[in-house]
Amino acid sequence: MNILFDLFLIFLKIGSFSIGGGYAIVPLIQKEIVDTQGWLTLQEFTDILTISQMTPGPLAINASTFVGIRLGGTPGAIVASFACVITGVLVSITLFRFFRKNNDVDEISNVLKGLRSTSIGLIIAAAGTIILISFTGQSNINFDFESINLLAVGIFSISMFLLRKFKLNTLNIILISGLIGLFLYT
């Protein structure tokens, strides 16, 4: 099949069934792009997530753009990005109109509370997957402790400490970590 058509269908599916945005979309992208389609390896996917996090803009759009450009060049980037956001745009417009007319209904608040809880779970699952890949090179929990990359754990721990203790800018931490990785891994 045509790669542009495939990219459109896959990212339309991802954009249509991801609730919460941001990291909540990561497990869906991984399942489709790495596990089901086999378009990227787990390491390539993790690299794309890292780059997506470092660039301005929403993670889902950045990730879909990078995957699209990798697989289909500039047309692939445009198609994947458009497909990823079109459902959300249409649903947002529809919901905005609905909420504007029904803003005092308690059931609507309760539905949104349930969706928030689900989004938190998806974000935690995505973070867990990224941590496992970074520390062990695998996305499953069945790993052997010798495969843990202690250097990656150390860089992660120092980054978390600097972020939480000194409230350093995230971009500075990313740059420092990248430089540390450059010197220690080469």
From TrEMBL:
Which segments cross the bilayer? 7-29, 77-99, 120-141, 147-163, 168-185
- Would you tell me the Gene Ontology cellular component terms? plasma membrane
Any one GO molecular function term: chromate transmembrane transporter activity
Entry's localization field: Cell membrane
Q: Write out the entry's keywords from A to Z.
A: Cell membrane, Membrane, Transmembrane, Transmembrane helix
Q: Which Pfam families match?
A: Chromate_transp (PF02417)
Highest taxon in the source lineage: Bacteria
Give the membrane topology. Multi-pass membrane protein
Q: Which family does it belong to?
A: Belongs to the chromate ion transporter (CHR) (TC 2.A.51) family.
Report the protein name in the record: Putative chromate transport protein
Q: What is the lineage of its organism?
A: Bacteria, Bacillati, Bacillota, Clostridia, Eubacteriales
Q: Which gene encodes it?
A: srpC_1
